[in-house]
Amino acid sequence: MMDFNEDRVTEICSKSIIFKGVDKAIIKEFLSSLSYKVVFIKKGELIIKEDDYIDYLGLVLEGEVNVCKYCPDGSESLLSKLKTHEVFGLDILCTPSRNSFYYAYATKPSFILKIDKKILEKGKVISEEDTSKIYGNVITCLANICAKKCHKIELVSQKSIRDKIMIYLSIQKKNNNSNKFKISFDRDQLANYLCVNRSVLSHELSLMQKEGIIKFKKNEFEILE
């Protein structure tokens, strides 16, 4: 098992939105006051199931995690794809029941940091200023999660595949502040996220490129219009 000592865990946590603006020494002290553990998750292994009781905040130390819902026919609806230093479970942790409303699984061998739910309680070992920073970051993270869910609703509400594609690419353009950008999804994942058939998606992307609307190569895109 890869060695995730205290210093390495602190280094990765310092790049997470939850600890943005907080000194590494403070993060280390804060984590030492909580119960946390590093767990190894195999590729394809479930981390969270729907209705699971969640009493921790998950942070990806290494690897990749997909958050999704499953439809009655068994098909997967992808909600988000998480990489190193990104978090999951915070939205569940902030609900009264703390019962999960989605699934999370590893798409490659991953190491996950599970931080005790007390991360949301008032810290006793760090200053009020640093505690306020962490709470502010938690609110920002929750706002980002809500924004992503709103984008997802907007996408799946569109009737045409082209509209779904253009809205998704426009969001990426805005997030990257550029007409040229890379997306985190491969074709299967993008089709899953947009709730469309992969072959139909590939066909529509090719048509849009021929019509001079977009240019793309693998996961690199450019909006031309």
UniProtKB/TrEMBL annotation:
Transmembrane segments: none annotated. Pfam families: cNMP_binding (PF00027), HTH_Crp_2 (PF13545). Gene3D superfamilies: Jelly Rolls (2.60.120.10). It comes from Terrisporobacter othiniensis. The keyword Thylakoid does not apply. This is Cyclic nucleotide-binding domain-containing protein. Keywords: DNA-binding, Transcription, Transcription regulation. SUPFAM superfamilies: cAMP-binding domain-like, Winged helix' DNA-binding domain.
